[in-house]
From TrEMBL:
Its EC number is 3.4.11.2. Residues 229-440 form the Peptidase M1 membrane alanine aminopeptidase domain. Residues 21-189 form the Aminopeptidase N-like N-terminal domain. This is Aminopeptidase N. Belongs to the peptidase M1 family. Residues 555-877 form the Peptidase M1 alanyl aminopeptidase C-terminal domain. Residues 447-549 form the Peptidase M1 alanyl aminopeptidase Ig-like fold domain.
Length: 877
């Protein structure tokens, strides 16, 4: 096999032929589905006369082909593994093809496949070409009419995009439904579902009075788990009307839950297909985190109806055009629905851990990459989350009114079109009159910019001089970086008053909280009339996706933690303070020196535990130490054992010193009110469970008893899972083992709960965990063919059990590589994602580097899918 070739953005050409209307007929069969396609085609006005017609197609058996009703002779077309070419076609014509495909043997879960006996599709990005021959690219938009034929007994429900227009029975126990989708769409938004499903139905009236039927389709046993998704959907529909003036545009909106799905969900027009984990919830089976995730994913997919479907991407390099924007939209929706500061804290702490790591590794890429081998590898944190941060910066730069004018303009101007990132930014520029040309660099330049900040207060004349220096480190293929346009939101907090001081810059008074624009490599900002010595509060709300360094002393950080008016930066000051203490302890551990706890951290925590803080959800975040992964991101060289030891040490010391405060916090937030996923209850459970984590760090009898009782009370999954996790991760196997066994037996029938059962066990810090992973891989509830299982067991182990994955004998790495090698054949998209932790080898000591590289080499020696090939090549480059 020759190495797969990259696709380049600079090679983009408009399609020579477009499809105005697509008629499809599926005659479903597990091993031999027949797909008939009639494509209404015409030559693009700019294409040259006589251009050949090229259609994408993979794993298709061609049965027949005709143009304008005339079957083609074998010399009139050619087919290879990737495409069908017809040398000569008229200017406008009808193309008829019939192909055969095998959904049952489709383990890649791309195209038409089977999941728990039902048929379903996943076409983004390039799955439609596994269904029929087609110009499978997003800039070809057509209306679709789809007829699905299936067995009336095994597939009583037959769904596709749009509105059902005809149904009827056929001989031999078959039946059909025909669906019409009047909105032109690219093939990646095509969807079909057929199976024995039940529905929950509701209604929504749009702002302009359109009556929409809402349906969530699930397997019968899951009928009781759709309430939250339905409520979230209605909230999202209303929110999009208010926040963006966007209404739903069909009479029917459907969500289907499937068990085998590569991603969270998919925004197919009118027929969203969801990973069951991203839609099903019940107080007894899903945690608060899962409830919130469902709400945000339901909203995200719904929001795509405009940002993605009505206005789509010209080519896949523009992926962040729809994903970054839609993530930004779902983040704002969740912030409005729940606690806004907590939403920001959660998003940023995830971002700084995972996206920063991606940016610092061998797969770093710009938000708009300029080439790829496999687009399936580019559904990344950079495209999604950094893309969202860039849209957030834009909205802050132009301000909310201009941003809304800009988005209105974008949706109106480009409705029904496939466009580029420039088109989006141009609308923002037009609506605001602000020059965004330097800002465009954010889309093409990879890597995390670093800002070094220094400040000096002049007591004599009351000036505060702030110097900012920016630098973006080199990333693979991009060695010279240019200065970016970086919005830095800040305040100066008076050390005497504890208040934000009025800001005057260049004679202009700017209130007490403002955004300064860093555009040069180095820039100086002199604030005048500063009445007292301040501590600067910089990058408030994480106003740009950068690393900001400022030489804060520990007193400064404790001061900001207590006084900053920006909730996000208060939290961040606490994290920075904890990091300074952790750095010392990591060094002590490495040098074999006795560890000494920084009492300023203890006092800061004591203050938090006794202060009047009205946002309890923020308090829970403030009491949470940076994760091991986040700490690792801050180190020049990652020492997993030292990080683990240092973090545990801090936890234990805090717990010992503040035991009574934590106990009080636990009791004050314990409640037996019926479960609701509302912000108040979530905050209370968060605080209670943070307190329990600390108490369990010292494992005294009271703590064990609280955890045991919380598990046994079986009140809701958030509490049960947290208690079971703490017990399983403690030294008390005598309590943990029976609890795990009881839990596993009770929930053996529920795959989503079993995923949690796997995750709880494989994050155990005890060294026996590797045997447990191997053992659990043979458990009847595990299957390598199901992405949720792979993520819960293997992904969680490799990503979250840092001490054991990075074991010095290399057994953790070996296990991961073995799974990747097997999955490379079954499901390349999932296999390629799973390799991620191995690609980060450069961050570790030499012994671990060698072990990790050896496993990457072992993978490389296999016959690889393009997905795995691309990742491994980059990792070893
Ligand atoms: N657009 C889908 C992504 C599917 C990608 C599959 N390779 C989910 C989402 O972002 O909404
Ligand atoms: Zn999306």
């Amino acid at each position: 096999m020759s190495d797969p070739k990259p696709t380049y953005l600079s090679d983009y050409r408009p399609p020579a032929y477009r499809v105005t209307h697509t008629e499809l007929t599926f005659d479903l069969d597990a091993k031999a589905t027949r797909v008939k396609a009639r494509l209404h085609m015409e030559r693009h006005p700019q294409a040259k006369n006589g251009a050949a017609l090229e259609l994408d197609g993979e794993r298709l058996t061609l049965i027949s082909i005709a143009i304008d009703g005339q079957p083609l002779g074998e010399d009139e077309y050619s087919v290879d593994a990737e495409r069908l070419i017809i040398e000569s076609v008229p200017q406008t014509f009808l193309l008829d093809t019939e192909v055969e495909i095998s959904p049952a043997s489709n383990t890649a879960l791309s195209g038409l496949y089977q999941s728990s006996g039902m048929f379903c599709t996943q076409c983004e990005a390039e799955g439609f070409r596994r269904i029929t021959f087609y110009p499978d690219r997003p800039d070809v938009m057509a209306t679709f009419s789809t007829t699905v034929i299936g067995s009336a007994t095994t597939e009583p429900v037959l769904l596709a995009n749009g509105n059902p227009v005809e149904r009827g029975s056929l001989p031999e126990g078959r039946h059909f439904v025909t669906w019409d989708d009047p909105h032109p769409k690219p093939s990646y938004l095509f969807a079909l579902v057929a199976g024995d499903l039940e529905k929950v139905e509701d209604r929504f009236t749009t702002a302009s009075g359109r009556e929409v039927t809402l349906q969530i389709w699930v397997e019968e046993e899951n009928l009781g788990k759709t309430d939250h998704a339905m409520a979230s959907l209605k909230r999202a529909m209303r929110w999009d009307e208010h926040a963006y003036g966007r209404e739903y545009d069909l009479d029917l909106f459907m969500i289907v839950a499937v068990n085998d799905f590569n991603m969270g969900a998919m925004e197919n027009k009118g027929l969203n297909i969801f990973n069951s984990a991203a839609v099903l919830t019940h107080p007894h089976t899903a945690t608060d985190v899962a409830f919130q995730r469902v709400e945000s994913i339901v909203a995200h997919e719904y929001f795509h109806n405009w940002s993605g479907n009505r206005v789509t991407c010209r080519d896949w390099f523009q992926l962040s055009l729809k994903e970054g924007f839609t993530v930004f939209r779902d983040q704002c929706f969740s912030a409005d629905t729940n606690s806004a500061p907590v939403k920001r804290i959660e998003d940023v702490s995830f971002f700084r851990t995972a996206q920063f790591a991606e940016d610092a590794g061998p797969t770093a890429h710009p938000i708009r990459p300029d080439h790829y081998i496999e687009i399936g590898n580019f559904y990344t944190l950079t495209i999604y989350e950094k893309g969202a941060e860039v849209v957030r910066m834009l909205s802050n730069l132009v301000g909310p009114e201009a941003f809304r004018r800009g988005s209105d303009l974008y949706f109106e101007r480009f409705d029904g079109q496939a466009v580029t990132i420039e088109d989006f930014v141009a609308c923002m520029q037009e609506a605001s009159g602000i020059d965004l040309s330097q800002f465009m660099l954010w889309y093409s330049q990879a890597g995390t910019p670093e800002i070094d900040a220094h400040g000096e207060y002049d007591y004599a004349n009351g000036d505060y001089r702030l110097i900012l220096r920016q630098r973006t480190p080199a990333t693979p293929g991009q060695y010279d970086k240019q200065a970016l346009h970086i919005p830095v939101r800040l305040g100066l907090v008076g050390t005497k008053s504890g208040r934000d001081l009025p800001l005057t810059l260049d004679g202009e008074s700017l209130g007490s909280d403002t955004v300064i624009h860093l555009r040069e490599e180095e820039q100086e900002f002199v604030f005048t009339d500063v009445s007292e010595a301040p501590v600067p509060s910089l990058l408030r709300g994480f106003s740009a996706p950068v690393k900001l360094r400022f030489p804060y002393g520990r007193e400064d950080l404790a001061f900001l933690l207590a006084n900053d008016s920006d909730g996000f930066n208060r939290w961040d000051a606490g994290q920075r303070l904890a990091m300074l203490a952790l750095d010392d302890l990591i060094a002590a551990h490495r040098n074999g020196v006795e560890k000494v706890m920084d009492t300023r951290v203890v006092e800061a925590f004591r203050h938090l535990l006794n202060a009047e803080i009205d946002d309890r959800a923020v308090l829970a975040e403030m009491l949470t130490l940076p994760s091991e992964a986040y700490i690792a991101e801050q180190q020049p060289l990652v020492d997993v054992d030292a990080i683990h030891a240092a973090r545990n040490f801090v936890k234990q010391r805090l717990a010992t010193a503040l035991r009574d405060d934590f106990l009080r916090l636990y009791k004050a937030n314990d409640s037996d009110a019926p479960y609701a996923p509302d912000p108040d209850q979530i905050a209370a459970r968060g605080l209670k469970n943070v307190a329990l984590s600390y108490l369990m760090a010292i494992e005294d009898e009271d703590a064990i008893e609280l955890a045991r009782k919380q598990f046994a009370a079986d009140h809701n999954m958030t509490d049960v899972r947290h208690a079971l996790t703490l017990l399983t991760h403690s030294s008390r196997d005598d309590i943990a083992e029976p609890a795990l066994k009881a839990f596993g037996e009770k929930w053996a029938h529920d795959p989503l709960v079993m995923d949690q059962w796997f995750a709880i066990q494989v994050t155990r810090p005890q060294p026996d965990v590797l045997d447990r992973v191997a053992f659990l891989m043979k458990h009847p509830a595990f299957s390598l063919k199901n992405p949720n299982k792979v993520r819960a067991l293997i992904g969680t182990f490799a990503g979250q059990n840092r001490v054991n994955f990075h074991r010095l004998d290399g057994a953790g790495y070996r296990l991961l590589a073995d799974v990747v090698i097997e999955l490379n054949r079954l499901n390349p998209e999932i296999a390629a994602r799973l390799i991620t932790p191995l690609t980060r080898w450069a961050r570790f000591d030499e012994t671990r580097q060698d072990l990790m590289k050896a496993e990457l080499e072992r993978i490389r020696a296999e016959e690889l899918s393009p997905n795995v090939f691309e990742v491994v090549e980059k990792a070893l480059a």
